[in-house]
Each structure stands twice: as C-alpha cells, then as structure tokens.
C-alpha cells in the first residue's frame, strides 16, 4: 500500500511541478502571485481537446492510450496557452506595471483574469466532463505490488524531459541568463542592457506553455472539467512556496512533496481531507525554513 501510494504521489507531483514552475517564474521575475495561472492551465487543456476532436484518430503509440495526434495537441496547447498568457499581460498586467500598481492590485487583477478565463471555457466547451480518450487501460506492474497506467509513466517521463530542457535553457542560453538576471534584480538587469520586455514576454510564454502541458497531462490521466485548473492552483502555489520562489529544482521538489503528501495521507485519513495535507506540510516547512527548501541555496 505504501509503495503504491508513493508511486501515485510521484506521478501526481510531476504534474503539479510543471504548474509550480510557471508560478515560480511569475513570483520571481514578475514579483506577484498569478492566480490566473490555474485557468490558463485549463484553457490549454481544452485547446488540446479541440485539436484531438478534429484530428484524424491514429493508432496508439505502444501501450499508451493515444496516438501522434495527441502529441501534436500537446504542442498546440502549449502555443495557445503561451500566447494567451502574453496577450493577458499586454492587456492587463503590463498596463498595471506601467502605472506602478501595488502587488496586491496585481493579485486582485489576476483573480479577475481567472474568472474571465473560466467563463470563456464554460462558454465555448460547456460544463460537461470531457475525456481525451475513452480507451480502457490495464495497469502494469513495475515493482512488486506497484501498478501504474502506461499513460502515467509517459507523463512522468515527459515531465522529466521538459524540466531538464528548461534547466539547460536557463543555464546555457543568453535569454536564460537574462531571465536569471531579471530574477535577481529587474532594475539592475535593465541598466546592464537586458531587454526586460522580451524577458517578461518569454517568461509569460514559458509559464503558460508549462501550465497547458500540465493541464493536458492532468486531463489525460483523469478528466477535463472547467474548474480543474482552479482545483489544482492551491497545490501549485503550495509547491512553489515550499521549494522556494525562483528555484527551478525547488518547484519540482515542492510539486513532488505535494503529490506525496496527498497520496500518503489517504492511508491514515479519509480521502476527502487529503487536500489539506499540502498546507500542513507548507506550515511545517515555513516554520522551520521560511524561505522554502531551496530559497537561499540556488536561484535559476
């Protein structure tokens, strides 16, 4: 039972970690908590659903339940959500920044963005539950008494690849170094010649794209609902704060801890209360280490 709960926690945590990276970027580079992030996640997931609905169904790839059209849908979802995040910034957040709006004003504005996006999803796709695929899968035993779906293994593997690619981009490219400079000090980065507007746009695009990919993975392993991003948002925020804002590995570690806390808790408490476990973990970590796990050790 414990081994199965750990496996389920790691698989859930991989999805949370992708969303937490986006929140971490906004916290460190844009200096506010973006509560519209969860609904950008939902928008991306439904964009992928639209493509899979119009694309010609192909043969499944190996043991997973989907074909190449779903992989294309993931890319399209990332592009749609990334561009949507940039448009939202142009229409809302950049105007507030130009007026030197307080951080609380930015946070309240993000609540409004979240409500607008959620109602757009309801208007276009309706309130019904949707699925990418209704094909039944048989869980595979990967370790003694540990069984997982092939789709879940694919999600975990691709999440690892995406995190590694983002790490290399931040460490090895000029734009990645510019993003790290902005995270340290936006004013100093601007004085040193960093094109802050481009960095902000790229940060929004990466944040939105990762949210969309997390949304498609969540929809693949569970189901699509208009409130799915909102329901995941609190866990994503908890993961970003747990790991230490601005830390790539911290966001990943926080996501995995959130997933493990939720899935291990059902062994001792009713499943309906598992959503409270990440917050108990957050309170414990902040009491011992207020800056988060990696908050003062590394910045990415």
Could you name the key traits of this structure?
300 residues; disordered C terminus; mainly alpha; 71% helix; 2 strands
Descriptive notes:
71% of the residues lie in helices and 2% in strands. The chain is mainly α and 300 residues long. It contains eleven helices and two strands, in the order ααααββααααααα. Strands 1-2 form a two-stranded antiparallel sheet. It has a domain at 28-232.
Query: How do the SSEs run, as a string of H and E?
Result: HHHHEEHHHHHHH
| Outline type | globular
Helicity, as a percent range:
over 70%
Number of strands: 2
Distinct helical segment count: 11
Arrangement of strands in the largest sheet: 1-2
Oligomeric state of the chains?
Answer: single chain
Largest sheet: 2 strands, antiparallel
The first-to-last residue Cα distance is: 36 Å
Per DSSP, what share of the residues sits in E-state strands of 2 or more residues? Answer: under 5%
Structural class of the helices, strands and pairings? mainly alpha
Radius of gyration: 19 Å
Mean pLDDT: 84
Uncertain spans:
296-300
Write the layout of secondary structure elements.
Elements: H1 2-30, H2 37-54, H3 68-98, H4 103-125, E1 140-143, E2 146-148, H5 150-172, H6 174-184, H7 186-191, H8 196-221, H9 228-243, H10 248-265, H11 277-288
Antiparallel strand pairs: 1-2
Helix pairs in contact: 1-5, 1-6, 1-8, 1-9, 1-10, 2-3, 2-4, 2-8, 2-9, 3-4, 3-8, 5-6, 6-8, 9-10, 9-11
Question: Summarize this, please?
Answer:
With 300 residues, the protein is mainly alpha-helical. The chain has helices at residues 2-30, 37-54, 68-98, 103-125, 150-172, 174-184, 186-191, 196-221, 228-243, 248-265, 277-288, and strands at residues 140-143, 146-148.
């Amino acid at each position: 039972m414990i081994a199965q709960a750990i496996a389920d926690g790691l698989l859930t945590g991989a999805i949370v970690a992708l969303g937490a990276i986006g929140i971490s970027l906004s916290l460190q580079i844009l200096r506010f908590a973006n509560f519209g992030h969860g609904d950008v996640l939902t928008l991306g997931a439904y964009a992928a659903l639209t493509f899979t609905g119009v694309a010609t169904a192909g043969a499944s790839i190996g043991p997973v339940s989907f074909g190449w059209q779903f992989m294309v849908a993931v890319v399209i979802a990332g592009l749609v959500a990334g561009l949507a995040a940039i448009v939202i910034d142009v229409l809302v957040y950049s105007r507030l920044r130009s007026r030197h709006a307080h951080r609380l004003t930015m946070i309240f504005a993000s609540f409004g963005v979240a409500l607008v996006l959620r109602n757009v999803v309801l208007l276009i796709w309706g309130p019904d539950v949707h699925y990418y695929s209704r094909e039944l899968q048989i869980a595979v035993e990967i370790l003694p008494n540990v069984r997982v779906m092939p789709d879940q293994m694919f999600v975990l593997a691709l999440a690892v690849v995406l995190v590694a690619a983002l790490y290399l981009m931040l460490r090895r490219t000029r734009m990645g170094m510019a993003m790290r400079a902005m995270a340290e000090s936006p004013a100093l980065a601007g004085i040193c010649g960093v094109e802050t507007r481009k960095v902000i746009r790229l940060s929004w695009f990466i944040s939105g794209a990762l949210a969309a990919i997390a949304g498609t993975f969540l929809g693949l392993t569970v189901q699509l609902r208009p409130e799915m991003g909102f329901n995941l948002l609190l866990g994503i925020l908890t993961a970003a704060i747990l790991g230490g804002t601005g830390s790539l590995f911290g966001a990943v570690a926080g996501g995995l801890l959130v997933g493990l806390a939720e899935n291990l808790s059902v062994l001792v408490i009713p499943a309906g209360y598992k959503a409270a476990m990440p917050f108990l973990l957050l309170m414990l970590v902040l009491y011992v280490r207020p800056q988060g796990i990696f908050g003062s050790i590394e910045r990415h």
